[in-house]
Predict the 3D structure of the following.
Amino acid sequence: MLDYQQQGKWPAQLDPWQSPIKINSAAVQRVETTTQPFKVITPYHFESVEHHGNNLQFNGSGKVQLLGRLFEFKQLHFHFPAEHCLNDRIFPCEWHFVHQDMIGHLAVVAFGVVPGENTPALAPLYHSFALTEGQKKSFSLEIDLKKIVAEQTSGFYNYLGSLTTPPLTRGVEWWVAAEPLTAAQGQLAELARPFSTPNARACQPVMQRPIRLYTTENL
């Protein structure tokens, strides 16, 4: 199991552009375009869930088009607390939808989560599940990500970074929702209950890399 208390001992990164990062909305580049940079092509279908020791991974399929390139959905997992820091705020939880294109490039769509109203489309995910580390079982769910994206009225931040767990793969394209989703406090507690320690990587230096904001006008 990955030890988040010993992040300094993780394998050395090969590229300084690492994730997660702190995002300051006042310092990002707003993008105006006549094309649609973020387009959900199909609903997301989940087939299984597996226990990774400090996380659950939900496996499935789906398709999204990012800046004109087709990506296949691979898996969804969470972090407590959130990994990205938005305008000096770290949300209690963050979901990561991990995608891959036909030549192996990775793209992660991230949503922070705060206590509030239940989001019905995601409600089946907020369970502790009767699994131990290494176990896997069937899990059936369909999520209409297109509807969730359409409700992001403040848009998505886009930047180039890495995976947030070893091997810290570089060249990962990130799309971070500017506004958090909501879940009932009990749902968040139930999801986190089997995991005794945080599983979030510390924020990494931005290193003057470009961060762009795509708003709903062009989503």
User: Anything to note?
Assistant: Residues 185-192 form the longest helix (8 residues). The longest strand covers residues 69-79.
